[in-house]
């Protein structure tokens, strides 16, 4: 069935099979149609215009058609829209097409959202005609509904209201509008500030709550009067803020004149009221002040001269004269206004008050003086009036006159003062400079005034500023001594007294200073001090070469002379320069002065020496032309020569020079002559002291200690050597007897014999032990010599002490060193032998046993080679301390040398007693040693021999203990063994083996076997390790553990090692030539070999002779080699590495090496020791160690080889740890070169051997 019940033909012939139909219930549709008619009626009767536009093509406004409009729409637009249904917008409203309205309708349809807008309609003339408020809303079928209303009038009102609000918003006063009932309709934003209330609280409400009861009654009354038509101005106070405002009310009327609203402005006059109140209060205070003045105060009109105001002082004088004419009141016989009443200076050109006009005048009647002050002011009523204040200043004028006379007197005194008087303002500028200041410093008053103080040198400016500031703060100074400068730059010493100058308020406005020139006084004082210093030098025994330079230097400082020197008169007629000082010392270079054989008028020095009187000249004087010319070249304008005397003979001269002329006045010359006399005395005393010092120095220079006593034995003098020897100073021993340093080591007889000898006048010699001041003893060879007078009586004794303490100590040390080990301080072999001999005698006497215990450290050589000999010595000392604690008192432990110790265990009854001590020694040594950051474990092998059971003499007893020790070492060490007779046989066997080994290399008994290193992942042979074997003619095949230790001890390892290296390299090259070019050979190198100085040359020669590429040689090192941290070994490794040689570490993990050494040394391969591999599958500790070693090798990018692999389980375990390179019986035992040739011919791969 299709829509509208159209039939569907069923068969091919077109016959109708069925007819289907539908029935629709249109009840609701009819109701809807009814509602639509109802709505239409409502819409037609609404006052809101409504139209519907259909936008057939939303993008084309020309297709917009009007499909509905109500009657209100026609009335609002003035267009008969009912006749335009179906018409386009262009036909209905052509003017609308020029606006954006159509696009706004399209936007509503597109967005599906309603939109509010305004539309303006204009007349044909272009004036605004109508304003519509429009709401466009979307309808179905691209329709848009438009609802609009005419808001032209309301817009006009709104615009006027906005303008009104803007006007009110801009004013600073409160603007408000109320209805006729007093309800607030509008306020501006000032409302809240003045009332304290928010505007919204009062919109539409009465203004009554804004005022208290009193002000509210006024407000209601004023509002009623305003509504009644009055325009009022009044004041009210707001209740909440207390602010007083001035209100002005107006009416707003309609067109008929009826009052619609009241409008008002309220201005805050609170501050004005307060100001008025303050003004009134101020007026009261001013009146009170004016009434309290002791001066005439009145106000008069400038035009009429009428008195408007008088103060109490004037009223008391003249009564109430207010309202009278001033010139008639104050002046008698005055016919017209005086000049003061008509003073035009009180007003400016515009007639406004111009300022204050003051003057003084003397009343001709009573002769009193008055100070008048006039000024024009504005009176309270706006008139310009004259305010006059007249003060009686007669007393002040008298005071000022007295002060003027005083100042004149003071100025005269200041100018007449012999002291310089200077005043400064607060900035440091000169305000007073008297005549004495001009004379003292050289600046005139004109040059000094109103400028910074000129007398302060540049380096004293900060000091002067600080002094001025202290005075300005109120501090005064009296007699402060400072150095200042004159105009010519010369220094002047002054005594300064200062005080602050105060203004009327008591504040410092400047400073006053009184200055005395104390240059001469200070120089005299300084010269006196210099004389005292010279006396002290003399008392101290200072030589002339100390005193004279000091005097010259001090004179240049005191007098600021550029040159001072002292010369000594020589017998050859010259004057030698002994001392000099000053900036012009260059004057004396090449200077030669003669006093003899030269005319007096040519040399002032010769004149002074010959006459014995001081001589002075200036460069301007005609005499001494040669001297003057030379001095002038150095800027020296005047100089003085003062003679020096000794026993009334001139011995030298003092010379002083200056850049200025006429410097050396009579007073200065007298001062310098006194100084020269003191210098002369100093020279004389110094000469005598020099002689005494020479004698004293001779005694003091004696290397031995010397002291002198009087005949009573009291010490009177000692030399320096005595103080050094005894520790006592001269002050401590003088007037003391030699008993002071008595040691108590000698008996009374010793001292009695000494005194008997020296009292007899004979010399005594002998050794004496004395006591040092600090309590220690010292030994001297003492010689005491009596000093005899002319009568042969002894008056003094001279004792000479030769210190032989060190000699005695050396003798003791030699004895000690002969019997004790220098390192451990244990008895050595000599003392040990002596004590053993005594113990053997003691054992025979008491039928007791004596044991000799021989101890040798196991693996000490490894520790010594690894950690260095210094560490080995430290370990031996620590070990000796432990061993001393293992024995009894009376027993002896001795060091025979190296790491061998031997004990005497005396007075035992059974050999087992010695065994207990031996076990104790093992136990004590089992604890680790912590030395220099290393933890070291030490084991030992101990042999025991018993006297007299094992031997009857010392040598055999020691030998048999030694044999027992070696037997303990062969048993694995860290144990003890008693001597047994069969041990001698083993020792003999070792000796025979050493002899055979010495011949083995020459006889060709040594051979090299090779064990493959295999990559177990592929079975490929990677390398061969060269292993030494000895085919002994009698003992058969010997492995290295039987003879290598002997080779190491005897040094045979050097030639044997070189032979093994040559053989292995030659064989490897042969394999390369046979077609196996990748095989590498590994050769073991011992510590002793590595310490050869020519090892690099040997290896280079072997490689050259065999033709083997260095890259296929790997040298296998022990951990002990790299642990030595020897720079020479490191250099050897690096040099060989540069050839291409590889290095591996054998048995890694069994020694003490650290990762830092692996990083420093050029190692390529780590080899895991067979002791770790053996139990790798059963022992977790061994498994952990192997795992760690492999991890270290991997992290350092080193190859890893496991040694001693004998089982498939071991190999599998290593493979899981990524260790593929292995060596051991699992693949092959060590083979001869021929067997290896056969093995290689079968293929370079190996498989597991059946076990």
Q: In CATH's first tier, which class of the largest domain applies? A: Alpha Beta
Kindly give the count of domains: 8
Coarse structural class? alpha+beta
Strand content: 25-35%
- Rg over CA atoms, rounded to whole Å, is 67 Å
Percent of residues in helices: 25-40%
β-strand number = 47
Named CATH architecture of the largest domain: Alpha-Beta Barrel
Describe the protein.
Residues 230-281, 478-530, 762-816 form the PAC domain. It is a single chain. The protein has 1251 residues and is an alpha+beta fold. Helices cover 40% and strands 27% of the residues. α25 (860-867) packs across α26.
Fold topology:
Layout: H1 27-45, E1 49-55, E2 64-69, H2 71-77, H3 89-92, H4 101-111, E3 115-122, E4 128-139, E5 143-150, H5 152-170, E6 174-179, E7 184-187, H6 191-195, H7 213-227, E8 232-237, E9 244-253, E10 259-268, H8 270-292, E11 296-301, E12 307-310, H9 312-318, H10 326-330, E13 356-362, E14 369-378, E15 384-392, H11 394-416, E16 420-425, E17 430-433, H12 435-441, H13 445-448, H14 461-472, E18 477-485, E19 491-502, E20 508-517, H15 519-540, H16 544-559, E21 563-569, E22 574-581, E23 593-594, H17 604-611, E24 615-618, H18 625-633, E25 638-646, E26 649-658, H19 666-700, E27 705-710, E28 715-718, H20 720-726, H21 730-733, H22 748-759, E29 764-771, E30 777-788, E31 794-803, H23 805-819, H24 829-846, E32 849-858, H25 860-867, H26 869-884, E33 892-897, E34 900-908, H27 911-926, E35 929-931, E36 934-936, E37 939-947, H28 954-970, E38 975-978, H29 983-1003, E39 1006-1015, E40 1020-1032, E41 1036-1038, H30 1040-1050, H31 1053-1073, E42 1080-1084, H32 1087-1090, H33 1095-1106, E43 1113-1117, H34 1119-1123, H35 1127-1139, E44 1142-1148, H36 1155-1160, ...
Parallel strand pairs: 37-38, 40-42, 42-43, 43-44, 44-45, 45-46, 46-47
Antiparallel strand pairs: 1-2, 1-5, 3-4, 4-5, 6-7, 6-10, 8-9, 9-10, 11-12, 11-15, 13-14, 14-15, 16-17, 16-20, 18-19, 19-20, 21-22, 21-26, 22-23, 24-25, 25-26, 27-28, 27-31, 29-30, 30-31, 32-34, 32-37, 33-34, 35-36, 39-40, 39-47, 40-41
Helix pairs in contact: 15-16, 15-19, 25-26, 28-29, 31-33, 33-35
């Amino acid at each position: 069935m299709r829509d509208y019940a159209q039939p569907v033909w069923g068969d091919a012939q077109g016959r109708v099979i069925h007819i289907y139909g539908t029935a629709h219930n249109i009840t609701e549709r009819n109701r809807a149609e009814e509602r639509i008619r109802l709505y239409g009626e409502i819409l037609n009767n609404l006052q809101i215009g409504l139209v519907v536009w259909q936008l057939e093509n939303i993008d084309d406004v020309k297709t917009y058609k009007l499909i509905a409009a109500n009657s209100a729409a026609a009335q609002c637009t003035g267009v008969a829209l009912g006749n335009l249904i179906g018409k386009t917008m262009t036909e209905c409203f052509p003017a609308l097409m020029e606006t954006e309205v159509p696009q706004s309708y399209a936007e509503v349809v597109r967005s599906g959202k309603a939109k509010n807008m305004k539309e303006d309609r204009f007349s044909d003339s272009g004036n605004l005609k109508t304003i519509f408020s429009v709401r466009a809303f979307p309808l179905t079928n691209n329709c848009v509904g438009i609802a609009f209303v005419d808001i032209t009038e309301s817009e006009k009102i709104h615009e006027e209201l906005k303008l009104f609000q803007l006007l009110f918003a801009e004013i600073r006063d409160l603007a408000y509008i109320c209805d006729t009932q007093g309800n607030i309709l509008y306020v501006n934003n000032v409302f809240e500030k003045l009332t304290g209330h928010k505007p919204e609280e009062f919109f539409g409400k009465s203004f009554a709550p804004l005022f208290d009861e009193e002000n509210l009654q006024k407000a209601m009354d004023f509002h009623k009067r305003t509504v009644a038509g009055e325009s009022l101005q009044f004041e009210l106070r707001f209740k909440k803020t207390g602010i007083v405002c001035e209100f002005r009310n107006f009416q707003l009327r309609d067109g008929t004149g009826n009052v619609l609203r009241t409008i008002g402005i309220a201005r805050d006059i609170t501050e004005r009221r307060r100001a008025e109140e303050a003004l009134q209060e101020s007026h009261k205070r001013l009146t009170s002040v004016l009434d309290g003045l002791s001066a005439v105060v009145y106000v008069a009109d400038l035009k009429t001269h009428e008195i408007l105001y008088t103060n109490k002082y004037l009223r008391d004088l003249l009564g109430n004269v207010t309202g009278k004419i001033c010139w008639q009141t104050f002046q008698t016989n005055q016919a017209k206004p005086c000049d003061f009443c008509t003073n035009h200076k009180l007003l400016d050109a515009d007639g406004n008050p111009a300022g204050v006009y003051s003057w003084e005048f003397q009343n001709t009647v009573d002769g009193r003086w008055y100070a008048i002050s006039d000024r024009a002011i504005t009176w309270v009523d706006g008139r310009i009036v004259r305010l006059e204040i007249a003060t009686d200043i007669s007393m002040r004028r008298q005071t000022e006159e007295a002060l003027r006379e005083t100042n004149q007197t003071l100025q005269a005194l200041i100018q007449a003062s012999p002291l310089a008087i200077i005043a400064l303002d607060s900035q440091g500028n000169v305000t007073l400079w008297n005549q004495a200041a001009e004379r003292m410093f050289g600046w005139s008053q004109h040059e000094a005034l109103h400028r910074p103080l000129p007398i302060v040198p540049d380096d004293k400016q900060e000091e002067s500023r600080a002094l001025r500031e202290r005075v300005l703060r109120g501090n005064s100074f009296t007699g402060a001594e400072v150095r200042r400068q004159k105009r010519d730059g010369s220094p002047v010493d002054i005594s300064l007294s200062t005080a602050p100058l105060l203004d009327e308020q008591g504040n410092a406005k400047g400073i006053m200073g009184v200055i005395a020139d104390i240059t001469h006084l200070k120089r005299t004082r300084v010269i006196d001090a210099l004389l005292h210093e010279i006396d002290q030098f003399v008392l101290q025994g200072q030589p002339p070469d100390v005193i004279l330079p000091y005097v010259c230097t001090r004179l240049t400082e005191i007098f600021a002379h550029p040159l001072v020197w002292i010369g000594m008169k020589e017998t050859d007629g010259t004057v030698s320069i002994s001392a000099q000082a000053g900036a012009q010392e260059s004057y004396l270079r090449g200077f030669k002065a003669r006093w003899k054989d030269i005319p007096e008028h040519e040399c002032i020095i010769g004149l002074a020496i010959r006459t014995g009187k001081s001589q002075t000249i200036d460069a301007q004087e005609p005499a001494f032309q040669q001297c003057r010319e030379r001095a002038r070249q150095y800027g020296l304008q005047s100089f003085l020569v003062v003679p020096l005397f000794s026993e009334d003979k001139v011995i030298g001269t003092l010379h002083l020079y200056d850049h200025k002329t006429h410097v050396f006045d009579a007073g200065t010359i007298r001062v310098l002559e006194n100084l020269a006399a003191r210098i002369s005395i100093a020279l004389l005393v110094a000469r005598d002291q020099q002689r005494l010092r020479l004698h004293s120095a001779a005694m003091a220079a004696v290397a031995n200690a010397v002291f002198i006593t009087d005949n009573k034995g009291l010490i009177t003098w000692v030399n320096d050597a005595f103080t050094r020897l005894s520790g006592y100073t001269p002050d401590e021993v003088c007037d003391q007897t030699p008993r002071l340093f008595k040691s108590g080591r000698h008996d009374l007889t010793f001292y009695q014999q000494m005194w008997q000898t020296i009292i007899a006048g004979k010399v005594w010699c002998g050794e004496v032990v004395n006591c040092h001041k600090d309590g220690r003893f010292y030994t001297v060879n003492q010689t005491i010599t009596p000093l005899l007078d002319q009568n042969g009586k002894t008056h003094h004794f001279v004792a000479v002490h030769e210190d032989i303490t060190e000699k005695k100590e050396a003798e003791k040390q030699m004895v000690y060193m002969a019997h004790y080990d220098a390192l451990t301080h244990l008895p050595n072999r000599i003392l040990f032998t002596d004590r053993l001999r005594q113990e053997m005698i003691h054992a025979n006497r008491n039928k007791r046993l004596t044991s000799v215990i021989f101890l040798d450290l196991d693996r000490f050589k490894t520790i010594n080679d690894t950690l260095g000999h210094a560490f080995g010595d430290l370990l031996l000392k620590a070990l000796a301390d432990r061993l001393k604690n293992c024995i009894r008192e009376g027993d002896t432990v001795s060091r025979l040398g190296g790491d061998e110790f031997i004990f005497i265990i005396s007075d035992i009854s059974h050999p087992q007693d010695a065994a207990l001590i031996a076990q104790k020694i093992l136990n004590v040594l089992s604890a680790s040693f912590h030395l220099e950051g290393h933890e070291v474990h030490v084991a030992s092998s101990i042999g025991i021999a018993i006297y007299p059971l094992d031997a009857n003499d010392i040598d055999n007893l020691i030998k048999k203990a030694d044999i027992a020790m070696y037997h303990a070492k062969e048993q694995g060490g860290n144990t003890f063994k008693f001597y047994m007779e069969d041990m001698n046989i083993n020792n003999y066997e070792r000796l025979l083996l050493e002899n055979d080994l010495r011949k083995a290399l020459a006889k060709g008994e040594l051979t090299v076997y090779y064990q493959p290193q295999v990559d177990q992942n592929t079975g490929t042979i990677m390398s061969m390790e060269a292993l030494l074997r000895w085919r002994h003619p009698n003992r058969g095949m010997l492995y290295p553990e039987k003879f290598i230790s002997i080779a190491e001890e005897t040094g045979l390892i050097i030639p044997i090692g070189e032979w093994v290296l040559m053989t292995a390299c030659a064989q490897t090259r042969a394999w390369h030539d046979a077609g196996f070019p990748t095989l590498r050979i590994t050769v073991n190198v011992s510590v002793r070999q590595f310490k050869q100085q020519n090892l690099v040359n040997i290896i280079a020669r072997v490689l050259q002779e065999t033709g083997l590429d260095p890259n296929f040689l790997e040298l296998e090192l022990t951990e002990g080699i790299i642990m030595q941290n020897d720079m020479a070994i490191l250099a050897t490794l690096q040099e060989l590495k540069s050839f291409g040689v590889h290095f591996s570490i054998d048995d890694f993990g069994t020694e003490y090496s650290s990762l830092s050494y692996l990083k420093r040394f050029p190692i390529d391969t780590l080899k895991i020791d067979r002791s770790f591999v053996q139990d790798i599958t059963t022992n977790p500790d061994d498994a952990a160690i192997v795992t760690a070693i492999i991890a270290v090798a991997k992290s350092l990018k080193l190859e890893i080889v496991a040694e001693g692999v004998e089982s498939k389980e071991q190999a599998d375990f290593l493979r899981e740890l990524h260790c593929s390179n292995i060596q051991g019986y699992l693949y092959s035992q060590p083979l001869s070169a021929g067997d290896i040739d056969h093995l290689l011919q079968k293929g370079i791969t190996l498989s597991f051997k059946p076990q």
